[in-house]
Amino acid sequence: MIYAILFSIAALALILGAILGMASIKLKVEADPFAEKIDAVLPQSQCGQCGYPGCKPYAEAIVNGDDITKCIPGGQPTVIKIAEILGVDVPTLDGIEEPETKVAFIDENMCIGCTKCIQACPVDAIIGTNKSLHTIIPDLCTGCELCVAPCPTDCISMIKVGKNLDNWDWKMSPSVIPVKNIDMVAEGEK
């Protein structure tokens, strides 16, 4: 009797599994390839600064005609990549201030080690443990400001990133002649 019950349960599971498998193939929803490409370009910080709950909904909104300049953590390089994907001109920022690049800073004298900022950070740019000091890894911080609000001691502030050799905008005039590596030219001629 037990074997008959086990056999009938196994047969029922096999039949229902086959039905679900066929339904997943038959009812598959195709994703928009442009939305997938745009989503791959976005920084995936899920910060919500664009007005959408994440990067995927923002990518879908861009495909449906929304503005491509709303991603603050991605900045101008992301806007350029999105414009290339869509085959449109890169919008100019006339009259609109380009957003300042900022990173979070924790005043370690005020930090109580509550870990609320760590839980809020979508890119894991904050290190520390419970009841100990926390600090920000500036290279990972996207400046989304999601860690500021949950801090009970207000020890997190956003500071402007100063220009240095690593983040300088090296815009060059088109009249500048590029210099080629002589070794690569010699190898290419052989």
State the share of residues found in helices, binned by percent: 25-40%
Radius of gyration: 25 Å
State the separation between the terminal residues, measured CA to CA: 82 Å
By DSSP (H or I, 4+ residues per run), the number of helices equals 6
SSE succession? HHHHEHEEEH
Q: What structural category do the secondary elements indicate?
A: mainly alpha
Strand portion, in percent?
5-15%
State the strand order across the main sheet.
1-4
Give the CATH topology of one domain. Answer: Alpha-Beta Plaits
Shape: flat
Let me know the average pLDDT. Answer: 81
Task: Provide the CATH top-level class of one domain.
Answer: Alpha Beta
Strands, total number: 4
CATH architecture designation of one domain = 2-Layer Sandwich
Please mark out the parts with pLDDT under 50 across 5 or more consecutive residues, or reply none.
Answer: none
Major sheet summary line: 2 strands, antiparallel
Written account of the structure:
- By secondary structure, this protein is mostly helical.
- Among the domains are: 33-86, 3-methyladenine DNA Glycosylase II, Chain A, domain 3; 102-160, 2-Layer Sandwich (Alpha-Beta Plaits), CATH 3.30.70.20.
- It has 6 helices and 4 strands, in the order ααααβαβββα.
- It has helices at residues 2-26, 33-41, 55-63, 75-86, 116-120, 182-189, and strands at 102-106, 126-127, 135-136, 156-160.
- A hairpin with a 7-residue loop joins strand 2 (126-127) and strand 3.
- Helix 2 (33-41) crosses helix 3 and helix 2 packs antiparallel against helix 4 (75-86).
- Belongs to the 4Fe4S bacterial-type ferredoxin family. RnfB subfamily.
- One of its GO terms (cellular component) is plasma membrane.
